[in-house]
């Protein structure tokens, strides 16, 4: 379904498709969605939550009878990925919250994904079972052992169809390699290795080996009092298996080549934009901290998200981004309040669409923003139950900064900062997006003409 | 939005701070030094709060510490340029950088939150609620606040010399073992020749030990002899008998109960110890 794909912003009208989650006004903390990710074909959509659960949705086959229902996503599998743990040595509770999910490309009938909390990465296999063997000799249909002396006939068990069962089994557990909290995982394009990054270190794993990991980045100073910078996100290049990037709390991105040295302390490229002196404030450094970094599908660009902007960088130009988009610049005059209530530390993610022509990121008040890189147009949309009539077209929203507030605008002071959209995902080839609003997952699609 | 272990109660102080920060944002007439002081106080309060948590957030702590350092540097440069305005009545040990034209600041912060209460001179601008809520903090206090929070974040790590642990058999690492792994500076003098894999962290897959109270296992063992800086046992030949017998013992790694890996090291060392004792005693 590529018609309309990669089209200009003005041609795309986003419609509500589905919403998952309860409508209750009180939110159970464990239901808060903490990560959202489509798989490589877009057939599956996975979410992780603060309670350590993973829910996978599968897109139903499109049917000719209901052409307007363009493949809705239904629950495919639910499992408990991580449990809360207690580290006795340090007297610390390890949260079960799923920080990230990353899919492996499909190589056989089963699906594989990595899920991680603060300390432990797990490889999960999700497979279907729709047949079961019947007619065992030594046990009956209930599984009870039969009395051997009563068996007079030998038979061959046969496979009979059964109701589809989807099983999730943990195939590998990669533990005890991170002293600090894991913020990113990224599967390498060689499909044999992946990396996990915490505040100070990045480790390289082989999928087959769980009791060893290779430390490839270490920025921990000899004396912790000298620490001024932490790693905030990391990702492998989509095609070059030796290349990866990691971002820092100082707003810089380092590109590393694993062929150069075993320990990638020396970067191959260093991306940093000089500070704009007119925007300088006490909070300049805090808002420059990068919360997410993503390679474009083409591998030619990287996108970074800091508190107020999204930036696109060309890998060949290190001294400044090629594009900067203001997500919610009206917050610049509210930084002290946002610092006081800790909102300034919120970590927003950002995503590319399949053709790298549009980028999307979240904001407050359940708003999310899209920027068309070609036309330079942008739009603000809202994920809310009020806009959730089937196939209802989403109306663009606008925040009024000062002066007269128009009828449909909302003023900055009325924004609800507890409703933040931190996690979004874009289907790899179609205009379908998944937006996590606290404990609800919204799925929007572009309008079918 | 404070972390675990700290219940957030709405107190007068917090209401005050919320009011102050919106005053910061909305007021253009607030003098710069006052704004700076306000931000500084907020930073130090946050660091103080994080210190009380079992596991402070490293990312946030670093960002806040950097902000404090930046303000600190600015204030230092200013004080170098102009005489310091010290109010009488402040304890002589602390240097208070008032750095503002307005006379006297008094403190209204509840105890347990503020770092230090310094009672200023008699002239107070009681009418100005913003000024009345600010805390004068010394340069030393700022530095020590940053240092202490960052030091606390330096977790003791479960790193053991991998040469003692690489399992024989099929589970061999697929990566080349000697491709320029970096030795951390603070361990360079501690590692013996065998410990090449400075950055190669081995994880302990024997999870069955996780549930045991490790301290109980080692209750009977007197580990005072194993208090050594070496983490890897260099297999040295026994020294001349004239030396005290304690000395060879000190070359063995510290047998602290930090992981199952060290349990194996200790057992190895005890048998080596026996061997050396036999040689020394000549039996």
Automatic annotation (TrEMBL), chain A:
PROSITE patterns linked: PR55_1 (PS01024), PR55_2 (PS01025)
Record-linked InterPro entries: PP2A_PR55, PP2A_PR55_CS, WD40/YVTN_repeat-like_dom_sf, WD40_repeat_dom_sf, WD40_rpt
GO cellular component term, pick one: protein phosphatase type 2A complex
Molecular function terms from GO: protein phosphatase regulator activity
Keywords assigned: Repeat, WD repeat
Family: Belongs to the phosphatase 2A regulatory subunit B family.
PANTHER family for the chain: PROTEIN PHOSPHATASE PP2A REGULATORY SUBUNIT B
Protein name listed in UniProt: Serine/threonine-protein phosphatase 2A 55 kDa regulatory subunit B
Organism: Promerops cafer
TrEMBL record, chain B:
Underlying gene: Sertad2_1
GO cellular component entries: nucleus
Entries under InterPro entries matching the protein: E2F-SERTA_domain_protein, SERTA_dom
Domain SERTA: from-to ranges: 32-79
Organism: Promerops cafer
Protein name: SRTD2 protein
Superkingdom of the organism of origin: Eukaryota
Pfam families reported in the protein's UniProt record: SERTA (PF06031)
